[in-house]
Amino acid sequence: MDITNLITWLAKVFTYVATAGVVGGFYIWQLTRPYETESHWLQRYIMVCAGLGIAAVLITFSTQLLMFSGQGFASFYDWELYAILLSGKPGLSWGMALGGFSSSILAVIFCWRSQFCTPLMLLSVAAILVSFTFTGHLVSSPWYGKLALLLHLLAISLWVGSLLPLWHLTQIIKTEMLASVMDNFGKLAMVFVGVLLVMGVVMLQMLLGDLRLLWLTAYGQTLLIKLTLVTLLLGLGAINKLLLVPQLAKPNAIKRLRAVIGIEMLIGMFVLGITAWATVVVGLDMS
To answer: pTM here?
Structure first.
């Protein structure tokens, strides 16, 4: 893998992480608002993730500019190239993502305590998620393919992006409050995990056509690794919901919960990395 592919892959990973962070941070903020917990950490979490997303968009655009022109750094002074790149679907994708990440920062800085924060954040999240439909392997798919992609992205972002805030909550709030938050998260997780799996199957069928290609192509084999990691996440999530959360009042239960969430975060990062690897490096080659 050359340096260009490496940078493009890293930018894609950063984009996924940023999207998950903004979506998951906003989601946990909504879950914890009734408990009046200290929310400044979540505010900073969303801002850092959104800043990472802005950086990822700029890196992606710069890399594409260099690859498209082949003129080296002189490309940054060629305004015609800017116009060409920004006039197509990639330009629309970058613009929506940049707008979504930027508006989420503005929302948490200026509207965090106001009634306008929630609608502004919802619009920001919608813009970020929709930006993915203008690039990637499903860019030419019918509307239901794009809908499956949006729901899949929303579900994985709600899940993976919530893990670090939940890990943080295990250190700062009382046991009873933590049990309530985790219980509410577990109930809603059953919904978005189901959406994640169903939409994943729909996308697999649309991308591969024949599911036997999971074993016969490099792209399919990469997706199998991702599916294995997601299965591990499901198992750890089940341990949290069924074993650890009901026993939070017992000694060392919170430490065990924190440890399992930490493992989930690590696996979640691998899932995002493998997804970016399949998109950027492996590619949808059925030969």
So the answer is: 0.91
